[in-house]
Amino acid sequence: MAQTQTPSAIAAPRSPYARRKTTRGNFELYSWVFMRASGVVLLVLVFGHLFVNLMVGEGVHAIDFAFVGGKWSSPFWQVWDLLMLWLAMIHGTNGVRTIVNDYAQRDSTRGVLKVLLYLASTIVVILGTLVIFTFTPCPPGAPAELLPSICFPN
After folding, report:
1. CB–CB of 102/16 below 8 Å?
2. 121 within a domain of the structure (yes/no)
3. What pathway annotation does it carry (predicted)?
4. Whether the Cβ atoms of residue 136 and residue 73 lie closer than 8 Å to each other
């Protein structure tokens, strides 16, 4: 005769680390909602970026320094690329944070990995933002033969 187990005899599922009560409130809920919302916005930003860069004009053959310089001379494209950078980095960082929380078993390992993750993400966001807003395709005083075609020598 087969023995049946009662629900109380089933072992609890494996937990990567002990869940503690925290005062963080609904952080994980907001994180989950952010991932869905940012994913939708990222789809629009990325496909808009790909369409403009690959389908409009001469396509991929037109992408060079002058193309990027011309694009980033417009505040619209600066903000578009900035939103894409920030959302992609925050979205990706949040996803990796979730993976670290799920698979790092020791608190110290989890802490080190998350500090490294946040540090790397912050550096990329800061450097990317600086590049977008300080990019100058036509630096003053540069030799005319080194300037891209969008620059008009003085």
Report:
1. yes
2. yes
3. Carbohydrate metabolism; tricarboxylic acid cycle
4. no
pTM: predicted TM-score of the whole model, two decimal places: 0.75
Q: DSSP letter string over 110-147?
A: HHHHHHHHHHHHHHHHHHHHHHHHH--SS-TT--GGGS
Number of folded domains that form the chain: 1
Provide the token pair at 131.
Answer: 């590049």
Residue 81: how many other CB atoms lie within 10 Å: 19
Tell me, yes or no, whether 61 lies in a domain. Answer: yes
Q: Which of 17, 13, 14 is nearest to 101 (CA)?
A: 17
Q: Lowest-confidence range among 20-24, 78-82, 102-106, 113-117?
A: 20-24
Report if residue 148 sits inside a domain. no
Residue 130 clears pLDDT 90, i.e. is over it: yes
Q: Provide the residue range defining the domain that includes 128.
A: 26-137
Is the pLDDT at 127 greater than 80? The verdict is yes
89-116 pLDDT tens trace:
999 999 999 999 999 989 999 999 999 9
Residue 131 lies in a domain: yes
